[in-house]
Amino acid sequence: MSHTLDPQPLSATPGAPLRGRLRPPGDKSISHRAMILGLLSQGRTRVEGLLEGDDVLRTAAAARALGATLERLGEGRWTVDGVGIGGLTDPAEVLDFGNAGTGSRLMMGVVGGQPVTATFDGDASLRSRPMRRILDPLTRMGTQVIEEAAGGRVPLTLRGPKEAIPITYETPAASAQIKSAVLLAGLNAPGVTTVIETAATRDHTERMLRLFGAEVLVEPHGPEGHGRRISLAGQPTLRATDVVVPADPSSAAFPLVAALITPGSEIVIEGVMMNPLRTGLITTLLEMGADIERLAEREEGGETVADLRVRASRLKGVDVPAERAPAMIDEYPVLAVAAAFAEGSTRMNGLHELRVKESDRLAAVAAGLAANGISHRIEGDDLIVDGVGGAPPGGGTVATHLDHRIAMSFLVLGLATLAPVSVDDGAMIATSFPSFLPTMRALGGRIGA
Ligand code: S3P
């Protein structure tokens, strides 16, 4: 299990308006996938704008342990010399994924579909997260689970078959991680592997597989076409390519909400990926009355990106439909913060998947709101936050449970409450947004130890 970082208590002090421009780090989902498809392809993949957060560095280390040669040329600029499908080697050591759910689950798909044996482990957060959702389809594809911790958790050891069995699999939860693990295992299957999802989730794996030369067919699924049927032709030759990583909308969410709730703020967030399967937060904030302008829309690395001009806004409460959850699954903690400032209540429907993130995010958000005097309730899988139409009290200390997004969300809260807000541990912010503190301080945000 990975070395546990010392807890890093942090506090945010309200008052100062946010001003200026920033570029958030590279998208975490795309960064993981660039390392993984680099490993599985032949030739040299060049990556620009890679997120150099702890989660992605763990995936890079795992790719290296499985046989790839990686080189860091400069900030966010990496090369990956791959081994190709079928060319992986048994790692000499345990693959320690730290806090990274995406890296570990996607790499389980890779290992599970290839004739290699590897042991996966992680920190206390990762050790508590369910892996059955990945192991179930992989077992059907021929993966052997040699060892696992109670309840299908890491540490666990997988051995993949010589060739994976192509399957058709309907995911039991709207999860891009499950979909991706099955597709990655299907790369070594002689035939077509199909994943059916009843609600469309982020499509970065499908897009990047195509970029590397795989044949992937995506069709609408279900009565209203909200779902997808994704078919991958197995055993392609993946060819190394260049990957430009756009800025992460899930990281952009923090300065974005901070500017909306802090009076007098105006910021521009540059190069944010506008993939519609990732922009549910922006849709919701616009419905709440947020002043967000999409400027200079352009294509970067196969994705539409835009600069977002954000001004402090008077927000009103809304009802967020459950169908929108996959497009904003990581953004609910910070939406709950925005909702606390809105006039009227905001109801966020269908949040059951939040219970199995880096922490039980539904419980962590509720506890954080309670600690800061913000009225809210959980009804089944729904969270209702009663906004006060201005600054809520604050003054609390929030338990982050090794969860980067809980830490950043409540620090954002404390930039605009009546009293400062503290978090017990901000160390995990380094997993996804290592430059969060200097970035927020450069905008004028008062966050410190
Ligand atoms: C991710 C998928 C989501 C998301 C995670 C990144 C990905 O998880 O929460 O931060 O890159 O595929 P689920 O697939 O479990 O919803």
From TrEMBL:
UniProt entry keywords in alphabetical sequence: Amino-acid biosynthesis, Aromatic amino acid biosynthesis, Cytoplasm, Transferase
Listed transmembrane segments: none
Region feature Disordered, mapped onto this chain: 1-28
Superkingdom as given in the UniProt entry: Bacteria
EC number(s) per entry: 2.5.1.19
GO molecular function: 3-phosphoshikimate 1-carboxyvinyltransferase activity
Residues where 3-phosphoshikimate binds: K28, S29, R33, S175, Q177, D330, K357
InterPro entries associated with the record: Enolpyruvate_Tfrase_dom, Enolpyruvate_Tfrase_sf, EPSP_synthase, EPSP_synthase_CS, RNA3'P_cycl/enolpyr_Trfase_a/b
Top enzyme category: transferase
Catalytic activity as recorded in UniProt: 3-phosphoshikimate + phosphoenolpyruvate = 5-O-(1-carboxyvinyl)-3-phosphoshikimate + phosphate
Compartments reported by the entry: Cytoplasm
Domain spans labelled Enolpyruvate transferase: 13-439
Residues engaged in binding phosphoenolpyruvate: K28, G101, R129, Q177, R361, R405
Active site: D330 (proton acceptor)
Pathway(s) it belongs to: Metabolic intermediate biosynthesis; chorismate biosynthesis; chorismate from D-erythrose 4-phosphate and phosphoenolpyruvate: step 6/7
NCBIfam families with a match to the protein in the record: aroA
Task performed by this protein: Catalyzes the transfer of the enolpyruvyl moiety of phosphoenolpyruvate (PEP) to the 5-hydroxyl of shikimate-3-phosphate (S3P) to produce enolpyruvyl shikimate-3-phosphate and inorganic phosphate.
Protein name: 3-phosphoshikimate 1-carboxyvinyltransferase
Encoding gene, per UniProt annotation: aroA
